[in-house]
């Protein structure tokens, strides 16, 4: 039975990693072909570093991810605090609308925002799709995830804490920053991490809310696949995958060391 | 303070959630001719009648596109369930020392850009690709999978499988193990323990897994675009074509509205299943 389980796990892991392995191997292929091996080479990595479009797209992706995460975290956290104080009925209504972008297919979110932007531009008479609209769109689809991660922490919060701070002479803002916020921190961090990941990986919403002049990585990759075989994609994804695995590995190691430290302290 | 926080967010919701949806509905229900905009159901007629109005309903062009989208989403959901449930069950069961690492291994591919992962299947599946090379080496006949339903299904299962595994895994891990022990103590055999205790208790995870696979499956654009080829049409591709290539917001919006109606219907059905299960539990108690 144990062997059967191991076999099944192995098979599924193979299924998940087969394309990734293929992609990594072919990023070192000297030939331009997708399926014949022409010897080991780093030429696609060199070409990647000499490709200004891809570098610009990478820069856009990172900038959008950082800014949209910061904005969505601020908007989402303050909104969650406000929503938590609402009466049941209005809370249900607000939460219903908050969940909508999460439930909607991202292609619908994308086109709805595109219509909104272009409609708005038509009314005010100026403006066009680009970095600004891309950023706003990312904030829009990230805010619900921050709210949904912060709300559970708020539920666990002792409502007397805030009152106590006020009674002891703290201003409402100071009470929020020094008393409430530290309690919410884990939820805020989870929300921010989710937002960052979703922003980096998004294709569909970005595809509808930007113009051809401003590309992020996903859109750049899509444009490259249109023109057929291009091993630069493989090189780029290999680099990103290795970077992410390294980052996760370091975080994991740090966590484990923390756990060990805590255990030894106990 | 409450007002201070809720008011701006309500405004935010109205501008970025309510108004966009109203705009989509508005475009779906109007046509513009000679600069005049009027309300009409013509766009829905366009979708349901297709190019040749005389044809039987289920053979009309866009009706077939919609049916194919739903069909592929259903099949891929079923495959994800059949593959994913045992996987979640094995991952949640005792016996593996580095369980969290294994789970991590299954989630890690999701951090790689999904366009790139989907594109990598091209290398494997195409006519002279790895898969066919392997078949050839083994002396077997080659097969053309790429640009067929099979390739699109494979792409969907590959991309959405973790969405099925994770919620089921969570519901299995959170399950009160004493309930299982109680069933065993009362003489239930392993099959009964699974079918009457474990599986019913994991249903919430199954339901959210189904939602998380079916919905992106029915609305996919990239997977069908890359693995199905340029001629391959699902609802997502139709939306993209109408909005970005034809430039007709009215017809594009109709497809979006139909997609959203499909989502609402499937969510309602799943909710019924969930509630039916809960009532059955209640009746048994």
Order of helices and strands of chain A: HHHHHHHHHHH
CATH topology of chain B: MetI-like fold
- Rg of chain A over CA atoms, rounded to whole Å, is 23 Å
**Oligomeric state, counting identical vs distinct chains:** heterodimer
Strand percentage of chain A, roughly? under 5%
According to CATH, the homologous superfamily of chain B is MetI-like
Q: How does CATH name the architecture of chain B? A: Orthogonal Bundle
CATH class of chain B: Mainly Alpha
Q: Uncertain regions of chain A: pLDDT < 50 for 5+ in a row?
A: none
> Can you tell me the overall shape of chain B?
globular
Largest sheet of chain A: none
Q: Which ranges of chain B are low-confidence, i.e. pLDDT below 50, for 5 or more consecutive residues?
A: none
Number of strands of chain B: 2
Q: Count the beta strands of chain A.
A: 0
CATH class of the largest domain in chain A: Mainly Alpha
Largest interface: A-B, 69 and 74 residues
Task: Outline the secondary-structure elements.
The complex is a heterodimer of chains A (266) and B (285).
Chain A: H1 2-26, H2 43-49, H3 52-85, H4 88-103, H5 106-124, H6 131-156, H7 160-167, H8 172-201, H9 204-209, H10 217-226, H11 231-265
Chain B: H1 2-28, E1 30-33, E2 36-39, H2 42-49, H3 61-92, H4 99-107, H5 114-125, H6 130-137, H7 149-174, H8 177-185, H9 190-218, H10 222-227, H11 235-246, H12 249-284
Antiparallel strand pairs in B: 1-2
Helix pairs in contact in B: 1-12, 2-12, 3-7, 3-9, 5-7, 7-9, 8-9, 9-12, 11-12
């Amino acid at each position: 039975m144990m062997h059967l389980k191991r076999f099944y796990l192995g098979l599924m892991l193979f299924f998940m990693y087969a394309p990734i392995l293929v992609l990594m191997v072919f990023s070192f292929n000297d030939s331009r072909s997708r399926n014949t091996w022409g010897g080991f080479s780093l030429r696609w990595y060199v070409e990647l570093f000499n490709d200004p479009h891809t570098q610009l797209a990478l820069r856009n992706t990172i900038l959008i991810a950082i800014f949209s995460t910061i904005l969505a975290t601020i908007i989402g956290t303050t909104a969650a605090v406000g929503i938590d104080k609402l009466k049941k009925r209005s809370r249900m209504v607000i939460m219903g609308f908050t969940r909508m972008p999460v439930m909607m297919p991202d292609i619908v979110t994308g086109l709805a925002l595109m219509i909104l932007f272009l409609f708005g531009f038509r009314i005010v008479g100026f403006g066009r799709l680009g970095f600004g609209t891309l950023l706003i769109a990312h904030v829009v689809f990230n805010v619900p995830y921050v709210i949904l991660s912060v709300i559970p922490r708020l539920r666990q919060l002792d409502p007397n804490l805030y009152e106590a701070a006020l009674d002891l002479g703290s201003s409402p803002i100071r009470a929020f920053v020094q008393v409430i916020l530290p309690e919410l921190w884990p939820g805020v961090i989870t929300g921010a991490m989710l937002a960052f990941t979703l922003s980096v990986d998004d294709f569909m919403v970005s595809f509808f809310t930007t113009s051809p002049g401003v590309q992020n990585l996903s859109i750049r990759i899509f444009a490259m696949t249109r023109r057929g075989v291009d091993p630069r994609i493989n090189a780029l994804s290999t680099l990103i995958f290795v970077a992410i695995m390294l980052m996760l590995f370091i975080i994991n190691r740090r966590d484990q060391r923390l756990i060990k430290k805590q255990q030894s302290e106990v | 303070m409450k007002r201070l926080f809720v008011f701006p967010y309500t405004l935010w919701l109205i501008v970025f959630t309510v108004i966009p949806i109203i705009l989509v509905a508005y475009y779906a229900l109007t046509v513009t001719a000679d600069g005049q905009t009027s309300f009409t159901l013509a766009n829905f007629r366009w979708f349901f009648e297709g190019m040749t109005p005389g044809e039987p309903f289920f053979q009309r062009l866009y009706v077939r596109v919609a049916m194919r989208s739903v069909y592929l989403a259903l099949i891929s959901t079923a495959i994800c369930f059949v593959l994913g449930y045992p996987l979640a069950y094995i991952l949640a069961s005792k016996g593996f020392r580095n369980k969290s690492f294994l789970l991590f291994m299954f989630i890690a591919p999701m951090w790689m850009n999904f366009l790139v992962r989907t594109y990598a299947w091209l290398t494997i599946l195409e006519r002279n690709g790895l898969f066919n090379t392997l078949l050839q080496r083994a002396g077997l006949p080659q097969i053309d999978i790429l640009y067929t339903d099979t390739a699109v299904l494979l792409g969907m299962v590959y991309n959405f499988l973790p969405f099925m595994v994770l919620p089921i895994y969570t519901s299995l891990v959170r399950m009160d193990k004493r309930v299982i022990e109680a069933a065993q103590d009362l003489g239930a055999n392993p099959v009964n323990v699974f079918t009457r205790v474990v599986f019913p208790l994991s249903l919430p995870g199954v339901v959210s897994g189904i939602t998380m696979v079916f919905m992106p499956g029915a609305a996919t654009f990239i997977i069908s675009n890359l693995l199905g080829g340029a001629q391959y049409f699902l609802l997502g591709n139709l939306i993209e074509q109408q909005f970005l290539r034809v430039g007709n917001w009215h017809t594009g919006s109709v497809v979006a509205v139909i997609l959203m109606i499909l989502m609402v219907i499937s969510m309602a059905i799943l909710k019924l299943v969930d509630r039916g299960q809960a009532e059955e539990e209640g009746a048994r108690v």
